[in-house]
Amino acid sequence: MILVTGGAGYIGSHTCLELLNSGYEVTVIDNLSNSSSESLKRVEHLTGTEIIFYEGDIRDPQILNRIFSEHNIDAVIHFAGLKSVGESVDNPHLYYENNVTGSINLFKIMDKFSCKNLVFSSSATVYGEVKTVPVHENFPLAPTNPYGNTKRHIEDILKDISSADHSWSVSLLRYFNPIGAHESGRIGEDPRGIPNNLLPYISKVAAGKLSKLKVFGDDYDTPDGTGIRDYIHVVDLARGHIKALEKMKVLKGLITVNLGTGNGYSVFEVLRAFEIASKKTIPFVVTQRRTGDISVCYADVSYAKEILNWQAEFDINRMCTDIWRWQNQNPNGYED
Ligand code: NAD
Ligand code: WQD
Predict the structure, then answer these.
(1) 294 alpha carbon to ligand 2 midpoint, in Å?
(2) 74 C-alpha to center of ligand 2: Å?
(3) Considering every ligand atom, which ligand is closest to the CA of 212?
């Protein structure tokens, strides 16, 4: 049995689907602070398999004790966390409390029940402003905001735990920019309010729900002046977690792995790919740079291939096509 914390969320729900399709049994804990349990119902429907769901908070030791007592948990995939960079700047204690305290609570209870296999959602944000690309796992860590700091702290805690006790298996997976949706159009990203991230914003503009995209700066040192990122399809990302679980069966200790495609796309390139996928013209206006944004970031993916035997399969056109299908079939996200 795999426990998926934050399993009702965007990446969690796609990972639950891949887990069930790979024959794993799945239990989810999620406090639904940024998601809807409808995502899990849809995963159950798509796979014809049941998910055991606990609505609860990873900061609550009682519910975690209950889950570990009621099920034989072999491994945990730990997605539960808050992820808005701006909110973390305004409310750092909330981020430390939720992400770091919640994680410590989880690790203590895993230890108590001798469940020492963990896959953790880290982020490329731990690298901060990088000097060169592609970004290799051994680059120095220099997050530039409280959200990134929480990821770095949790990574450090896990490094210390696995050095103290060699029976732990830990995969720190550093995601680049996850986008896309399952090809069924039944599950996808459903941000609350006005989206912060590029793709959810573009898809709402294409759908006529927002008037125009604000391109945050066209004066970066890139070929077209806009920021470059490594966008990765969420289904590829989810499959990377299955590979990490498989690796754990044969490898103890801690590994740190970038999950990206290794390719960078600019804001204008993504915009064009989305226009082609949606057959819509997407109005935009160039504005000032967004504070804290970096110019270029994409992954060195050689270690993922070597250690996990994993590489991304889907290209940017497929990512946009799948987002557009999800947007069209669910104009109001999971409320529909
Ligand atoms: P998401 O918000 O859709 O999913 C996170 C889930 O965790 C939500 O369902 C939320 O309700 C739940 N949650 C939050 N705090 C909780 C708590 N204390 N107890 C129980 N449940 C809680 O986000 P996502 O995009 O699916 O991200 C999943 C993980 O991956 C997060 O840890 C995030 O920081 C990390 N990550 C995301 C991205 C990205 O761009 N989406 C990139 C890098 C890393
Ligand atoms: C991508 C590009 C923007 C919105 C964030 C987090 C990071 C990680 C992934 C969790 C940039 C430009 C964006 C818009 C724009 N999350 N942009 N107009 O900033 O790379 O990463 O999500 O770990 O921690 O910081 O992603 O999608 O916000 O931006 O021009 O309305 O699109 O400037 O170049 P980012 P993003």
Answers:
(1) 9
(2) 34
(3) 2
CA torsion through residues 205, 222, 219, 193, sign? positive
What structural domains does the chain harbor?
2-183+232-260 (3.40.50.720)
For atom 10 of ligand 1, the residue with the nearest CA is 34
HSE-up (13 A, CA, CB side) for residue 153: 16
* C-alpha to C-alpha distance for 295 and 174, rounded to whole angstroms: 19
Residue 140 identity (one-letter amino acid): P
The alpha carbons of the chain give a radius of gyration, in whole angstroms, of: 19
Look-up: residue for tokens 């993922």?
A: 304
Low-confidence spans in the chain with pLDDT less than 70? none
* pLDDT at res. 27: 99
Please state, as a whole number, how many other Cβ atoms lie within 10 Å of the Cβ of residue 223: 10
**pLDDT recorded at residue 336:** 74
Six token digits for residue 220: 């970066």
Ligand 2 contact via 284 beta carbon (within 6 Å): no
E-strand stretches of the chain:
2-5, 26-30, 52-55, 75-78, 117-123, 169-175, 177-179, 213-216, 228-229, 231-233, 253-259, 265-266, 284-287, 296-297
Q: Are strands 265-266 and 228-229 parallel, antiparallel or unpaired?
A: antiparallel
Cβ distance 154 to 103 under 8 Å? yes
**Closest-approaching ligand to the CA atom of 237:** 1
**pLDDT for the residue 69:** 98
User: Is this model's pTM higher than 0.85 or not?
Assistant: yes
